[in-house]
Amino acid sequence: MLKTCVLLAGGLAMIAGSALAQPDGFVDRFATIDQSLWYAANYQWNNPAFDTDWRADNAKAGGSLSLRLKPSSEGINRFVGASVRRHEPSSYGRYEVVIKPAVGSGIVSGFFLYTGEYFGALHNEIDIEFLGRDTRKINLAVFVNGTRWERLIDLGFDSAAKPRRYGIEWTKDSIRWFTGDKMLAEYTHADGPIPDLPIYLYSNIWATSAKLHGWAGKVDRQARGLTEISCISFMPQGKDGVFSGTDRCVDPDGGVLASSAAN
């Protein structure tokens, strides 16, 4: 889904066109929400696609990260959701999440990479989104400065039945999405431009406005949702093309994403 502006506020980072030293990899299993590493949004959100304001206390950790959506009569929107962003931007590598998305028409659970105007950059974005009206499908997307590529993929299982591992592999030549060890889709230069700017990692839960009901469904006024995340990890791609890291997310049933060779 095309996001017209950044989903979270934070310190302005003028990174457009700049080089970035690749940060170290990480794995976070959310014993707490470390505020030195993550920013939890807490503000009213004036965006025509969203019927959601952000509340930091809707994001809670204690061995996993819980992102909640609930009705509200106190802000400019009818719902309050939760959204977290990694403070430090990153670049090419493998991003993984163990997630159980929310259920409900008009409710979206997201795991994605984003930069844009707020950060002084062109719009670059890579998405995984679960639409709560049909959690047997996954929405994948790439946006680069006005270009848009999007696919709705049938998973063959109900993603909301239990936590599962999903991954994004992003290199200069391609983007690949995975569930477990299975590649869901691949995007290359033949499909369009590939994001090439430092980018921020997000996860969120939100309710759509009427503008997106055709995409995500109409949300009930009393709808509530819960997105559960037990792990997020990042393995940077080194100059040798290898994804490096000493720890990463694993499936609740065991195993790690053993996917393609690096580009």
Structural class: mainly beta
**Oligomeric description of these chains:** single chain
What is the residue-averaged pLDDT?
89
CATH topology: Jelly Rolls
Number of domains: 1
What is the molecular shape? Answer: globular
> How far apart lie the N and C ends?
27 Å
Helix content: under 10%
Order of helices and strands: EEEEEEEEEEEEEEEHE
CATH top level is Mainly Beta
Summarize the structure.
Helix content is 2%, strand content 41%. The chain is mainly β. The relative contact order is 0.25.
In words, what does this structure look like?
There is one protein chain. With 263 residues, this protein is mainly β. It contains one helix and 16 strands. The chain has a 16-stranded mixed beta sheet that branches. The longest helix has 4 residues, at 213-216. 45% of the residues are buried.
Structural descriptors:
globular; disordered C terminus; 16 strands; 41% strand; mainly beta; single chain; 1 helix; Jelly Rolls; 16-stranded mixed β-sheet; 263 residues
